[in-house]
Amino acid sequence: GDYSVGVLCGIDDTNRLFILDIVRGQWDAYRRDKTIMETASKDGNAVTIVIPQDPGQAGKSQKNHFIRMLAGFKVLSLPVTGSKETRAAPLASYISSGNVVCERDCNWKNGLVSELKSFPSGKHDDQIDALSDAYNYLFSKRSSGWTSV
């Protein structure tokens, strides 16, 4: 099945995008929710958690579930619109221009690079979805703070 993915990233005062952490796994609903809560607690209350809302009733239900579960944290739910390729295009341009920085010593970088190279025809695109949502949120707000998606 699909992976659940969360990314911790932000932009600095020169508008470079920093990817600080990626949490990724194929979990049942209980383990997914536990991982989300553990990650939110580790990141702290200063981090805004952005939850993508898929279209339809299932997306609304999932949004409500996550907002209730994450009570006490700053949570935004943003509707997902457009194709994956359309949503990823601005991020792809930014990566190509050298404006994206990854943590050097991380266990997730090779998997991310592999997924980026095979997109859009690769087997998985969940990290790209999460990273695209983070990029689009951060630059739509033109904030210079850190956020988690």
Descriptive overview:
The protein is of the alpha/beta class and 149 residues long. 46% of the residues lie in helices and 23% in strands. A hairpin with a 5-residue loop joins strand 1 and strand 2. It is globular, with a radius of gyration of 15 Å.
Number of extended strands: 6
Termini Cα gap: 20 Å
Radius of gyration: 15 Å
Low-confidence stretches: 143-149
Average pLDDT, all residues: 89
Tell me the helix content.
40-55%
3D shape: globular
**Helix/sheet category:** alpha/beta
Q: How many H/I helices?
A: 5
Task: Sum up the structure in keywords.
149 residues; alpha/beta; 6-stranded mixed β-sheet; globular; disordered C terminus
Give the arrangement of secondary structure elements.
Layout (H helix, E strand, L loop, with lengths): L3 E8 L5 E9 L3 H15 L4 E6 L2 H14 L4 E6 L4 H13 L3 E3 L6 H10 L7 H16 L4 E3 L1
Give a short overview.
The protein is an alpha/beta fold. The protein has helices at 29-43, 56-69, 84-96, 109-118, 126-141, and strands at 4-11, 17-25, 48-53, 74-79, 100-102, 146-148. The chain has a six-stranded mixed β-sheet with strand order 4-3-6-1-2-5, with helices on both faces.
